[in-house]
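Quick review question:
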């Protein structure tokens, strides 16, 4: 059964014209290898993702020595709401694409009749819609994983042992940052999925439009990571934070303040006033 299924799928893809196969390979390369390539670029030159990783670790370091972490919880809650909104929107788009793909001949013919779409057989049209659906589905899974990790981080923020010694707080901040950074990286991957889903949708217009949209999405993402005004501002924020030490809150300063010295001689203080001296 698996061999027959793989044979059927390979036969379907071989039904695509050569130019469509080449453009599809270019799309898959950009889509699947964008993040590893970005990490490699981040080691050599500053990109937003690398700078934000440092900024988020600093955020957790500041959170650990802050007396009240209410602000941190509110900020992370806002990020969770944003991820939930994008996930809901993504789910609506998946339902729309799946409705056309699995809605039978009537649904396909209603879309195939659009004049702007490139002429293609029903099988090729289903493959194109399937690529759009897979790109959206991967983005949805990224959003779901991001929301779960952000909830883990929210619990870690609430459990911060704020009265612990400073080395413990530093270690705790590093561990919490190791939860937060992958969470927001997954959120970024979900947002990036919209770019590639739009590029995949351009395949319906033809292979040339597909190639242009894929290259344009790749160029736009790289420009925003390295050359945009936001990337320069984020880099500046990172440089400022790296020059400034983490300052503990007053609750830790009072805890670690030096104790008052005992009176000279080490003896106990007399209970009452000393007797007056008689000449």
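Suggested answer, residue by residue:
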């Amino acid at each position: 059964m698996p061999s027959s299924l793989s044979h059927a799928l390979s036969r379907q893809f071989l039904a695509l014209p050569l130019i469509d196969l080449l453009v599809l390979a270019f799309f898959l390369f950009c889509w699947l290898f964008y993040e590893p390539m970005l990490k490699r670029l981040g080691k050599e030159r500053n990109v937003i993702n690398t700078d934000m990783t440092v900024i988020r670790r600093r955020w957790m370091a500041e959170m650990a020595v802050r007396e009240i972490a209410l602000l941190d919880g509110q900020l992370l809650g806002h990020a969770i709401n944003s991820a939930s909104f994008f996930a809901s929107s993504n789910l609506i788009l998946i339902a729309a694409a799946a409705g056309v793909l699995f809605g039978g001949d009537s649904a396909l013919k209603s879309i195939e009749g659009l004049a702007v779409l490139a002429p293609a057989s029903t099988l090729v049209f289903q493959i194109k819609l399937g690529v759009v659906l897979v790109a959206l589905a991967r983005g949805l899974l990224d959003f779901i994983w991001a929301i779960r990790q952000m909830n883990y981080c929210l619990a870690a923020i609430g459990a911060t042992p704020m009265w612990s010694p400073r080395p413990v707080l530093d270690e705790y901040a590093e561990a919490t940052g190791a939860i937060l950074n992958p969470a927001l990286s997954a959120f970024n991957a979900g947002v990036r999925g919209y770019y590639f889903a739009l590029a995949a949708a351009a395949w319906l217009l033809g292979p040339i439009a597909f190639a242009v949209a894929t290259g344009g999405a790749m160029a736009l993402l790289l420009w925003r990571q390295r050359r945009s005004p936001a990337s320069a501002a984020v880099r500046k924020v990172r440089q400022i934070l790296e020059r400034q030490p983490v300052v503990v809150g007053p609750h830790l300063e009072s805890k670690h303040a030096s104790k008052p010295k005992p009176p000279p001689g080490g003896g106990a203080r007399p209970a009452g006033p000393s007797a007056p001296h008689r000449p």
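Why it works: The chain has one domain: 17-247. The first helix runs from residue 2 to 14.
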